[in-house]
From TrEMBL:
Record protein name field: DNA-binding protein
Top-level taxon in the UniProt lineage: Bacteria
């Protein structure tokens, strides 16, 4: 399995060995929700009745259900592995590390703290700068949305953002010179019920 995993990691452009990747997976798995959460436990008895009355199943996972934690675990691990440190981001932007921290504090760059150190998702950078229109998108992003949600949104094709003749990701839309306000409008809706 190690050789196969190393091949997959190399093809994906991840800069870790198989052992390092598995350590990341173990660490992220520990920080995720319990392996078999009981959805009903999150609600009061009155809320449980109301939810089941409208047809929601609060019974939890069945043996034949896909394990959603595995998909989230993989996404978090890749997000963490590809994220830049403050020093990495400063080198990309050719600025002092204090400027990166200032941009993070002002909401002009996206990031999160991991064990006391800032991590900045790679999707927001280009080879020699910041993604065009990034500040407009970040200003519209609801503050309660975690980095994984924003990363997923920015890297998932959206039907309303045509790049060429196909739906493009918000990142590709911005790289192609698309109006950042269209991406910001969609980003503002993240986390709101449909």
């Amino acid at each position: 399995m190690t050789v196969a995993l190393e091949t997959v990691l190399a093809k994906a452009g991840l800069r870790v060995t198989a052992d390092e990747f598995l350590c990341l997976v173990e660490d992220v798995a520990r920080r995720l929700s319990p392996p078999h959460p009981d959805p009903a436990a999150y609600f009061s008895p009155e809320q449980q009745v109301a939810l089941t009355d409208v047809g929601l199943d609060l019974g939890g996972l069945r043996e034949d259900d896909f394990e959603p934690r595995a998909r989230e675990l993989a996404a978090r691990t890749v997000l963490l592995d590809t994220a830049l440190t403050v020093a990495d981001a400063a080198a990309v932007l050719d600025v002092d590390t204090s400027r990166i921290r200032h941009r993070l504090a002002a909401g002009r760059l996206a990031g999160w703290k991991d064990r006391g150190s800032w991590r900045l998702p790679a999707w927001q950078f280009t080879e020699n700068g910041v993604l065009p229109g990034l500040e407009t998108v970040l200003a519209a992003m609801p503050e309660d949305q975690p980095p994984l949600v924003l990363a997923g949104f920015m890297t998932t094709p959206q039907p309303d953002l045509q790049v060429g003749d196909q739906p493009g990701t918000p990142r590709n839309w911005l790289l192609a010179g698309g109006d950042p306000r269209r991406v910001a409008t969609q980003a503002a809706m993240l986390g709101t019920p449909v």
